[in-house]
Amino acid sequence: MDTDADDLAALGDIGFDYHHRILIGGRKTGGRGLDSLNELGAQFTREAREDIANAIRTDKELFESDAFLLVAATAGGTGSGAISVMAPYLKERYPKMAIYAMVVLPFRHEEVSDDKVIINSAVCLKSVYEAASAVFLVDNDKLTQHAPNLIAEPAGTNGFIAAPFYNLLCVGGEKKARYVGARMLDAGDIMQVLSGWTAVGCASLPLPRFSFRPTREAHQELRLMDEAISGLSVSCHARDAGRALYLISAPAREISLEAVTELGEYLSQITHQAVIRDGDYPRETAKKEIVLVLSQLGDVARVRELYQAMSQE
Questions:
Q1: Where in the chain is the domain with CATH 3.30.1330.20?
Q2: Distance (Å, whole) CA 229 – CA 298
Q3: In the prediction, which pLDDT does 152 show?
Q4: Cα–Cα distance, 135 to 183 (Å, whole number)
Q5: pLDDT at residue 229 above 60?
Q6: In whole angstroms, what is the distance from residue 254 CA to residue 59 CA?
Q7: What is the pLDDT of residues 110-130, one digit of tens each?
Q8: What is the homologous superfamily of the domain 5-132 according to CATH?
Q9: Which of 82, 160, 80 has its CA nearest to residue 120?
Q10: DSSP H/E element including 273
């Protein structure tokens, strides 16, 4: 959903029908966006809530789902205003389903050039935090530090943001016996970890596509864990996490219980008091991958900075 008709038309992987692309406020804006006016984004979303709810209700997979995931950027008017309205609305309408949000935080240079960016972001974060079960934070500045070339290619950037979720979503609903690991994570395990401010990251290592012998590089998984920590979606300290989860996926021959246990001991040391869940996911893939989630974060510097900046406006 958007107030900008051109942005909706440019989507490549979303259905073209009105159930999948919803233009809000079109009569008042002419489909040209909101110019960072958060209040209008919230207003138009409230006016269109029934249309949005109807689009959700007619999806045949709705009642097989475990949760909603709402995604928006905090800096602009439409996303920051809309997600602040939709999160509590869906929570009230579907009380038995979890509501998760993923919010993309602005570049610092945007805050300097436009005061509305700070206000929109801080208001959005406060509203979503109060309504959502967990809020995944994605910091644009952190993203460019980790992968500076991605920002020039939106599809690549979005793929990078989405990558950690793929195995989590697959393992949560896995039904094929050959893909069930010794320590299987199901959707319930994952949902018990997610709470409050949340960071997610992943790291992968290419493997020979045709090989019948496992790689035996010492502490390979620990190095991948360090990469996942450095590549978290927002800068934070692992010791501030109240809950954590990690998932290792690779061909079955590449996964050992010893490695899974070693990862757990390592993560326990750096998170101190966090409740940790872990799992392994045998996949027919040419890479070894670790996905890490740090949740119930007690302090996130980027969020604190935005709150402080708004109080000074």
A1: 177-297
A2: 17
A3: 67
A4: 26
A5: yes
A6: 39
A7: 888 778 899 999 999 999 999
A8: Tubulin/FtsZ, GTPase domain (3.40.50.1440)
A9: 80
A10: none
Cβ atoms of 93 and 53 closer than 8 Å: yes
Name which residue leads in pLDDT, 240 or 313.
Answer: 240
Q: Beta-strand (E) ranges in 181-313?
A: 196-206, 241-250, 275-282, 287-297
DSSP state for residue 107 in the 8-state scheme: P
CA distance 81 to 77: 6
Picking from 20, 25, 23, 30, the residue whose alpha carbon sits closest to that of residue 43 is 25
> Which tens digits make up the pLDDT trace of 44-74?
999 999 889 888 888 888 888 889 999 999 9
Please count the residues of the chain: 313
Name the strand (E) or helix (H) holding 32. none
Closest to 296 measured CA to CA, from 159, 182, 158, 196: 196
CB-based contact 268:244 (threshold 8 Å): no
* Residue 185 DSSP label: -
What dihedral do alpha carbons 111, 117, 123, 126 form, nearest 10°?
Answer: -50
Task: Label residue 12 by pLDDT band (50, 70, 90).
Answer: confident
CA 182/CA 186 separation, integer angstroms: 12
pLDDT confidence bin for 211, thresholds 50/70/90:
low
Average pLDDT over residues 188-215: 85
Name the CATH code of domain 177-297 (choices 3.40.50.300, 3.60.20.10, 3.30.1330.20, 3.20.20.80): 3.30.1330.20
Question: From the CB of residue 197, how many other CB atoms can be counted at a distance below 10 Å?
Answer: 23
Tokens of 24: 């809000």
Contact 143, 232 (CB under 8 A): no
Q: 98-105 and 134-139 as β-strands: parallel, antiparallel, unpaired? A: parallel
The kind and range of the H/E element at 137 are: strand 134-139
Contact 286, 185 (CB under 8 A): no
